[in-house]
Amino acid sequence: MDTDRRPSDRVDVCIVGAGPAGALVAHRLTAAGYDVVVLEAGPRFDREQRIERMEQSLRPSHAPQSVWDVGGERDAYTSAGPDHYPLNHTRTKGVGGTTLAWHGMVVRLHERDFDGRNGGDPWPIDYADLRPYYAQAEQEFGVAGADDNPFGPRREEPFPMAAFPPSHSDSIFAEACQSLEIATHSAPNARNSEDYDGRGTCVGFGTCKPVCPAGAKYEALAHVEKAEANGARVIDRAPVQRLEHSADRIEAAVYATPEGVEHRQEARQFVLAAGGVEIPRLLLLSASDHYPDGLANSSGLVGRYFTEHLGARVGGTIDRRTRQHHIEFITTESHQFYDSDDHPPIKLELVNYAGQPPVGTALSADHWGDELLETLRETYGNTLEVAGLVQQEARPENRITLDHSRTDDHGNPVPQVHWSISDRDRQAVGRATEIQRSILEELDADIEWVVGRDATGPAAHHMGTTRMGANPETSVVDPQCRTHDLDNAWIASSSVFVSVGAMNPTLTIAALALRVADHLAETLSQQ
């Protein structure tokens, strides 16, 4: 039966985007009794195809992004900055958003990330404001973790599940880290170390990114379905083209169907939850006589301060079996070099998936039989890698704009990414690789690859393009994540980040989304 993509009668809330932020807001608001419509640009993927998509991800003939149907005119973009930005490399559009393909790492920002001591402008809120929402987000996701991080921010609540035990290669790294006086601790994961919330325990397929066929890793589809059970309506393949508005309110979200028919979804309140690229793009596409430079853009900052996390990696081989690729997620990390007065935040990660996996080696080999078996024996299982995230400096010249020379499948200008890596950023990446190299050298490893200051790239964490602040002249949203210019427009996204730290952003996105939902529910109750 064809999906009915006609608009609902005027509802309480229209949410743009069915990723983790949109799903959590929809669930919380519908649980409070409000009528919600969610508009999602991508499709609703069939759960029954997870195994097929996993198998596709293992084949060298398929690009990683093709596993979730990324590409083509729908996802066209251009990169115009000094450093090329591969926007589609890990982008995902569909019900569930980026959690369909994410790694599942869920860590809290530190106190110093909020007050400016870790570099950049301070947030208008502090860690204490988000701490209860961090705990709620961990419960909603189902996070496996342990309170064993001596460098982490204060927490009062236990993790929902026990942490995954250290891997075999973690124990190898432990020898070197202990000798170098580098403290390590468990890595929180949004995947089940035991049955949780109707999802089974992780069974170790080892394809977490881009596909978890077992359903042990959290996907936002879980909260989409809970919201639907509460009465929410979720319309997939309904990309929003523009937001119709008056001087101070959004009146309707205009979306298109796969057949090209446009509809208007009216609502009392609107939540933009489509990520750090598509949100500023939509606001810019919604320019009008009221807002000639883009909706909610009286500050001129919509799209500016596009910020990433930078990757740093050092890897090689040692003369012992490391059992890499038995699991595909990180179980041990170190925040020892995070809160420093000498360099920007650095998060170290002890990788469990270094080198080419055996399936990939076999599928790409040009020989067979005993010869291939001997190759696998020689090349698989003795690799090690220390990876990490490094904070990028938030700068206004890094930004998302519209490229009017190229259009998407609906005739709209595509997003153009202006992105560059500063000397300060490269120095911080260089410091990270120094630490990583010291660990491998302590193990007498043959270092075979380094992703350092001259080869670093983005981690596909899109942040900062509608930054939060108390001053309407220097920010896009207020401390409650409501736009300064429109009183019924809220943004639940990493786009509101002021500084980005070096922590994977999804848990902070979730905490902010839950906080937005509470403020929005209070606003609705007073109308």
UniProtKB/TrEMBL annotation:
Signal peptide span: none
Cofactor(s) needed for function: FAD
Keyword Cytoplasm in annotation: no
SUPFAM superfamilies registered for this protein in UniProt: FAD-linked reductases, C-terminal domain, FAD/NAD(P)-binding domain
Domain Glucose-methanol-choline oxidoreductase C-terminal: 395-513
Domain Glucose-methanol-choline oxidoreductase N-terminal: 91-309
InterPro entries xrefs: FAD-dep_OxRdtase, FAD/NAD-bd_sf, GMC_OxRdtase_N, GMC_OxRtase_C, P2Ox-like
Pfam family, one: GMC_oxred_N
Molecular function per GO: flavin adenine dinucleotide binding; oxidoreductase activity, acting on CH-OH group of donors
UniProt keyword annotations, A-Z: FAD, Flavoprotein, Oxidoreductase
Domain FAD dependent oxidoreductase: from-to ranges: 12-45
Similarity comment text for this entry: Belongs to the GMC oxidoreductase family.
Name under which the protein is recorded: GMC family oxidoreductase
The organism of origin for this protein: Halapricum hydrolyticum
